[in-house]
UniProtKB/TrEMBL annotation:
Predominant cellular place of this UniProt entry's protein: membrane
Spans traversing the lipid bilayer: 12-37, 49-66, 87-107, 127-148
Pfam families: DctQ
Source domain of life: Bacteria
Residue span(s) of domain Tripartite ATP-independent periplasmic transporters DctQ component: 24-152
The UniProt record lists the keyword GTP-binding: no
Subcellular locations according to the entry: Cell inner membrane
Keywords of this entry: Cell inner membrane, Cell membrane, Membrane, Transmembrane, Transmembrane helix, Transport
Membrane topology: Multi-pass membrane protein
Full protein name: Tripartite ATP-independent periplasmic transporter DctQ component
GO biological process: C4-dicarboxylate transport
GO cellular component, as recorded: plasma membrane
Source organism of this protein record: Vecturithrix granuli
Molecular-function GO terms, alphabetical: transmembrane transporter activity
Length: 161
């Protein structure tokens, strides 16, 4: 039971690590087949590109989960705690809104690509585009979680004043 809880809590990280390991092995075998055996694997470059896209977008969701996304904090250190929490809440609200916009539009995009097939690997392109709504959904959920947390911190800071 404990194993499943850890897997659930760290699903994105586990999936991203597995995809990264697959990318490493695929790239290694591609280089070996091309330079050692003089017989390149034709689909490996395309699959590697798809894995890289998936890993990048999963990494963005993981960064949002841990609140480690890129931010400019030039003025944030000089603000009072309740203002800092208010600014954070506004930022997370904007991230949530943008994530929901990306989610809606990427579902449309994934639907539009169901008949497209990758030229070399013959994988449906909808599988490649599927990471867009998945990452947007996770980022939106994490942004909402952080928004609620910042709101609670804001209320706590107001009570302490």
């Amino acid at each position: 039971m404990k194993f499943f809880k850890i897997l659930y809590d760290n699903f994105l990280e586990v999936f991203a690590v597995l995809a990264f390991i697959m990318l490493i092995f695929l790239t290694f075998f591609q280089v070996c087949s091309r330079y050692i055996f003089q017989a390149p694997i034709t689909f490996s470059e395309e699959i590697g590109r798809f894995l890289f896209i998936w890993i990048s977008l999963l990494g963005a969701a993981i960064a949002m989960k841990h609140d480690k996304h890129i931010r400019l904090d030039l003025f944030q250190g000089r603000m009072r705690p309740h203002l800092r929490h208010s600014l954070d809440a506004i930022v997370f609200l904007l991230i949530f809104g943008f994530s929901m916009l990306v989610l809606v539009q990427s579902v449309k995009l994934s639907g539009a690509t169901t008949r497209q097939i990758a030229p070399v690997s013959r994988i449906p392109m909808a599988y490649m585009y599927l990471i867009l709504p998945i990452s947007a959904l996770f980022m939106g959920c994490y942004a909402m979680r952080h928004l609620i947390s910042r709101f609670q911190q804001f209320l706590q800071a107001r009570r302490e004043q």
